[in-house]
Amino acid sequence: MKNQLSALIDGEFVIESSEHLITSAKSGGELKSCWVNYHLIGDVMRGDAVMSQNFSNRVINALEAEPTVLLPNLAAIPSIGDGYRAATKQSGYKKFTKLWSVAASVAAVMFVGVMVLQQQLNKPVQLAPVEIALVAPVEKLAPVEIAQSVPTEYLQAHQAAAPNGNAYYIQNASYTEPKQ
Amino acid sequence: MLRVVCAVLLSVFGLTSFAADDPWFVLEKTAYAARELNYQGVFVYQNGKQSRSVQVTHMNSTGQEMTRNVMLDNSAQAGQPSEVYSRGNDIVIFRPQNQKMVIEKRRGQNLFPAMLPTDLQSVKASYTARIGPVERIAGREAQIIELVPNDTFRYSYKIWADTEFGLLLKMTLLDNKNQTLEQIEFNQLSMLNSQDTNWFQPKIDASKSYVMEDATAVNHVNTNWIVAELPTGYVKVDHITLNVPGKTAPVDQIIFSDGIASVSLFIEPITKGMHPKMGHMLIGSTNICANVIEGYQVTVVGEVPEATVMQIAKAVSFKKQTASNK
Question: Are B38 and B82 within one domain?
C-alpha cells in the first residue's frame, strides 16, 4: 500500500484504481502519516516552499479565533436584496460578497500574522538600549571568565554558515544529539 | 563514460597542461573536478578524537550538481543514518532524532571533496602554494600541494590531488607547529559511469514522522556592527541574525573568510541574569574568544589561530547612528 501511495504521489500510479489508497489515507492511521510525510519529503527535495511546522493548525486556530465581524453584513444582504431580486444580479453580488468576506478574513489572518512577525522583529531593537542601560555596569564590575561552558549553538551556527563545511560531519553526528 | 570524462578534462585543461607543475593550476583543477565529475566514495573525517565515515555520491548532470552524503557511523542512534542531499544552492538534511526524522534546510556550503573555491584569488593573496611529493591515497596516485600561510592569522593546509582526475583525495589542516588538527580523506573512490539519478531520494522510514526544523536564521544585510581592523586577508562574506533557543534577543552572526578558512562573530545584548564572558578557549581545532563590548557579549569562533579570533573580538565596535537617523 505504501509503495502504491508513493507511486501515486509521484504520478506513477493509475488514478482510476487509486480509490482504496485515497480512502484509507483519508481515514487516518499510518497511511495518512505516510501521505503527509511523502509530500513533505517531496516538497523539500524539489526545493518547493515548505510551510513551517503546524502551519495548517495555526491557520485553522487563527481562523477560529477570528471575530466574525463580516458575517452580519452578509446576513443582511438577502433581506435588503429581496425587493430587488428580479431586477438585479443579486446572486452574483452575493457570491462576490461571500468571496470577498473569505478574502477579507484571509487578509485579516495575514495582517495579524504580519503584525505578530513585526512585533517579534521589532522587540529586540526596542529592548536592547534599555537592557544595556540596566546591565552596562556589570561589565565594569566583574566580567565572568569563560569557563567550561561551551556555547554549543554558536559552534553549530558557525559550522552551518561557514563557506566550507568540513566540521559539519562531526557536528551533525554528535552536537545535535542532546537536544530534546 | 570514463573516456568522455577524460576527454572533457583534457579539453578543459589540455591547453594549459604544460603548467602541471604550477601548484595553483593543480588546485584549480581540483576545485573544478569535485564539481564536474561523477563519483562515489567513502571518506573519513577526523577532528581531535572524533572521526566519522561518510559515503558521498556526486553527479553533475547537464550542469546541475547533485550530491548525497550518508553518515555511516551513527553512534547511539540505531536505525536510519543521517543523509544530506544537495542540489544547486540548497542543502537538505534528514536526521533521526528519537522517534522523528528531522528535516533541515540550509544554504549551500563547499563540502568535501569540493572544499576549495573555484575562484582562488583570495586564497592566493593569503597563502603560498608549493608542490610536494607524490603519494598514494585510496589506491590513487596523488600530488601533494602545500598551502602555507603568509602570516600568523591562518593555519596551513596540505592537499592531495588525484594526478589523473584532479579530484581532492585528502586534506589536512595543520597548526603552526605542523601538527594535524583536522584530516579528511577518501578511503575508497570510484568514478560513476551511469547517468541514473535514482539514488537522489531519501530512504524513507515509514515508522517515523517527518518534521521540518523551524528555521533559525533570517538573512539581514545592514548592520551597525563594524570590525575596525580585520586580520589581513579576511573579508565579510555574510551577516545573519539567529534566534537561539533560550535567548530572548536574536543573535547577530557575521561571517568572515579568507577564501578557505572562516570565522564567525556572534554579538548579543547582555540581558538581565546573563553572565558576561571573557577569555579564550580551544575545542578541537576551534578557537573561541569571548569579549564584552558596550554592553554586548561578543563571541568569535573559528578553525583559525588564537591571534585571529582575539583580534576580531577586540576590534568590534558599534557604529553609532547619527541623530538625524532617529
Answer: yes
Query: Which residues pair with residue B44 across a beta bridge?
Result: B53, B185
* Residue among A44, A161, A180 whose CB faces B105 most closely: A44
Distance CA(B207)–CA(B130), nearest Å, equals 53
C-alpha A64/C-alpha A87 separation (Å) is 37
CA distance B275 to chain A (A): 6
Q: Which residue has the cell 573555491?
A: B117
pLDDT tens digits, one per residue of A132-168: 333 444 444 455 655 456 577 888 888 888 877 665 6
For residues A14 and A49, give the distance between their C-alpha atoms in angstroms, rounded to a whole number. Answer: 27
Task: Give the residue among B190, B180, B199, B200 at the shortest CA–CA distance from B51.
Answer: B180
Regarding whether A128 and A82 lie in a shared domain, the answer is yes
pLDDT digits (tens, 9 = 90+) for B80-128: 678 899 888 788 888 888 788 888 887 778 889 999 999 999 999 999 9
Nearest residue, CB atoms, B71 vs list A134, A151, A169: A169
Q: What is the pLDDT of residues B221-278, one digit of tens each?
A: 566 788 888 999 999 988 888 877 777 788 889 999 999 999 999 998 888 778 888 8
Q: Are residues A76 and A138 in the same domain?
A: yes
Among the partner-chain residues B71, B295, B303, the one whose CB lies closest to the CB of A135 is: B295
Complete DSSP assignment for B61-105: ETTEEEEEEEE---TT--SSPPEEEEETTEEEEEEEETTEEEEEE
Would you call B245 and A153 a contact, using CB atoms and an 8 Å cutoff?
yes
User: Where in the sequence is the domain holding B304, given as residue range(s)?
Assistant: 217-325
The total of structural domains in chain A comes to: 3
Phi-psi label, residue A71: left if phi above 0, alpha if psi -120 to 50, beta otherwise: alpha
Strands, DSSP E only, in A10-155?
144-145
B168: CATH: 2.50.20.10
Query: Residue A7's domain spans which residues?
Result: 1-50
Of residues B103, B112, B286, the one with CA closest to residue A156: B286
Residues of A within 8 A of B295 (CB-CB) are: 131-132, 135-136, 139
What single-letter amino acid sits at B89? N
